[in-house]
Design brief:
Elements (H helix, E strand, L loop, with lengths): L1 H13 L5 E7 L3 E6 L4 E5 H6 L9 E3 L2 E3 L12 E3 L3 E3 L1
Antiparallel strand pairs: 1-2, 2-3, 4-5, 6-7
Pfam families: GBBH-like_N
Keywords: Iron, Metal-binding
InterPro entries: GBBH-like_N, GBBH-like_N_sf
Length: 89
C-alpha cells in the first residue's frame, strides 16, 4: 500500500502546473493574477463572490431557484495572504 502512495505522489509531482508570479488588487472592482506561462486573468469582485468557497457566500435555494445573496455591488478593499497559497479578500 505504501508503494502505491509513493507512486501516486511521484505522478502528482511530475505534473507541472503554472506558478503564480503576480497577484494585483485593482480595488475595488477586481483582482489580477499572472502565471509563469504568461497567462493573465482579471477576476471581477462579483465573480469571486459567487464562486467563493466561503460559507457566507454559499448558494441558497428559494422556491427551487438558486440565490446568492450579496453578489451585486461587491467591492474588494484589501487582500491578505493566508498560509502557503490562500488569500483573504
Amino acid at each position: 500500500m505504501a508503494g502505491i502512495h509513493r507512486a501516486f505522489r511521484s505522478i502528482q509531482t511530475a505534473v507541472e502546473y503554472p506558478r503564480l508570479t503576480r497577484f494585483s488588487l485593482k480595488a475595488p472592482k477586481s483582482v489580477e493574477v499572472q502565471f509563469d506561462d504568461g497567462s493573465l486573468y482579471s477576476l471581477p469582485a462579483e465573480y469571486l463572490r459567487v464562486y467563493s468557497p466561503a460559507a457566507d457566500s454559499k448558494v441558497r435555494s428559494v422556491a427551487g431557484e438558486k440565490v446568492i445573496y450579496g453578489r451585486r455591488y461587491v467591492g474588494i478593499l484589501s487582500a491578505e495572504p493566508v498560509g502557503n497559497y490562500g488569500v483573504t479578500l
